[in-house]
Fold this protein.
Amino acid sequence: MFKGFKEFLLRGNVIDLAVAVVIGAAFNAVVEKVVSSLINPLIGMFFKADSLDTALLVELPGGSSLAFGALIGALINFIIVAAVVYFVFVMPMNELRKRTAPAAEEPVVETEQELLSEIRDLLKAQNGGASAAAPLAAPAAPKATDGPAHAE
């Protein structure tokens, strides 16, 4: 029971996932600081609000409100995170893979003669090798001096 659990924990995928979660949490703190230090002051300047959460509020009857600013803030956070992940992690990793990947070999194209020889050999193997291995040749054309074949 513990052996299986140990194998599960020591797989590369689980360790990579744990590292990704920790890095993601730390990265989220950085994005939050960027939004609170750079984006919110700009929003405050344009919309006369302290942050995106209090910007673009639409009051509804009954005391509730729609917070369009909070939605815009969440979208900005998402775009920042996606851009940094792409440009800092994904793009360099793809370039590294391109440089270290072995060159793909061109598939070998067999000639018609080679393919026919393989088919002949396979048919012989299926029939138990009834005929001797002879090179594949076209049937001979009848000679001009030969008359029509007579069936007897």
Summary: Residues 2-100 form a domain with the Non-ribosomal Peptide Synthetase Peptidyl Carrier Protein; Chain A fold (CATH 1.10.1200.120). The first helix runs from residue 2 to 9.
